[in-house]
Amino acid sequence: MSAMKKEYKVGIVGIGTVGTELVKVLRHRKFPASEIRIIARTERDEVIAGETFHVHAASVEAFEGLKFALFAGTEGAKGASQQYGWPAVERGVVVIDNGDDYRMDPRVPLVIPEINPEALRKHQGVISNPNCSTIIALMALAPLHKVAKIRRFIASTYQSVSGTGRDALVELDQQARAYAAGGEMTGKVYPHRIAFNILPHIGGVKENGHTSEEIKMRNETRKILDAPEIAVCATCCRVPVFYSHSEVLNVEFEKPISPEQAREILAGSPGVKVMDDLSKAVYPMPVDMQGADDVAVGRIRKDETVPNGLTMFTVGDNIRKGAALNAVQIAEKMIEMGLA
């Protein structure tokens, strides 16, 4: 970041779980922001990491003068980019959207900077952040795909409640406290209690009994890797964990790739941390990856049920790399590439 001398006015749309993390990431990475302007539904002041920000009420005029607008997709702001995204672009703003409104739009690049930064050159003003579960999977899969093309993979996810937002974090905490006290566990966020339970249901019901979260993993993977032929089957589950998503990936490649090769490739891949020594109980866990920038991969071994198969376990902080960090990295990469 030291090479960046120019400063930029940055807007953050939504100040829920992801919006708050965006502010922290911008400060932590010393992003060259001459201004951080927070835009949300109502005008007020917010204290984030000890710093007080004035929150501007959302309007088209609120984007005036910004270079980047990072749409957090929180605080009930799903669809905010539909209302304000393209009007902001008309004012010269680069929109980086964490929501799913434009991910599959052919005008809009879907970018993980470590994987497909070249897609940024085709942007028309809006860039989409992939879904958190897709990012965490592809940080492990994309480096291997470059060496031995992926034919298909099965993803079984264990996704934390922070992916649903602040209300879900509060609900899990309250239910756990109620359970410990012998009280009644109630909730409004999920259709069933989440404490000490697993819900194999994330998103709306879509085609052939899949959920929207599961369909996202398939469609987004194909777009990011520019590989429409990859077969993907995902089962996405919500688990009683506060932060970090975990995923089991069963992968079939077009040619052989050994666990040893995979570890070597991943160990040399930016943003990936290999934690893989089962004999010493070394493997990724959500409690270790909360707040971490990297995605961790472990339990790398042969999947003997298919030709050229590998199985692995990957964990990443869904609010950090799965959302806020990836958005800020997109802005950094655009500056580096001379696109902003």
Write structural notes for this entry.
The two termini are 15 Å apart. The model has no long low-confidence stretch (mean pLDDT 95). The chain has 2 domains: 8-129 and 323-336, NAD(P)-binding Rossmann-like Domain (Rossmann fold); 134-317, Dihydrodipicolinate Reductase, domain 2. With 340 residues, the chain is of the alpha/beta class. The protein is globular. It has a 7-stranded mixed beta sheet with strand order 3-4-2-1-5-6-7, sandwiched between helices. Strands 9-8-10-13-12-11 form a 6-stranded mixed beta sheet. It has 8 helices and 13 strands. 29% of the residues lie in helices and 24% in strands.
List the main descriptive attributes of the protein structure presented here:
340 residues, alpha/beta, Rossmann fold, Dihydrodipicolinate Reductase, domain 2, 2 domains, seven-stranded mixed beta sheet, six-stranded mixed beta sheet, 8 helices
